[in-house]
Amino acid sequence: xxxxxxxxxxxxxxxxAEWLTRVRPVADNPVDRMLWIDNRTYLPGDLLTKMDIAxxxxxxxxxxxxxxxxxxxxxxxxxxxxxxxxxxxxYLLKRLAERFLPHNLIYRRKMGFGIPLAAWLRGPLQPxxxxxxxxxxxxxxxxxxxxxxxxxxxxxxxxxxxxxxxxLLMFGLWRxxxxx
Length: 180
Fold this sequence. Notes:
The chain has helices spanning 3-23, 30-40, 42-57, 69-77, 80-83, 91-97, 103-106, 117-122, 126-133, 136-139, 144-156, 162-179; strands spanning 84-85, 88-89. It is mostly helical.
């Protein structure tokens, strides 16, 4: 492990320790501790930021009614088994929803907002992928042999390297735009 990885690990451990120290006085069980930390880190630093960017792009002013401070305070005061019960999260909300919605909708697996990245990379974006990622001046200092092998596995063998290829494509396009 290099020095950079060690420093990143130390920063992460310090960050975790600080949050765990802050949460102990306000929550006495692991579920409430995770919820408290998520409300102060993951929601504002990731999920709400993404929602704001996406909605404002479309000219929408979005609201998250379940994040109203009174709702959050009420939910925080509930016993843990109303939040998670027999492995079911959002237990009380789901029990309430059963009155209005089909069971299979309420209890289905989570579905992200994924895009058909692999199909795009193999389809309309394939010429750009091949042009950029086979040009050593756009991919240096990265290993050209590894990139070639990754592309071959993706296009010829069907291995799903779509996230890796997307990242490499963005890197190559960045270099093309800013460095050439």
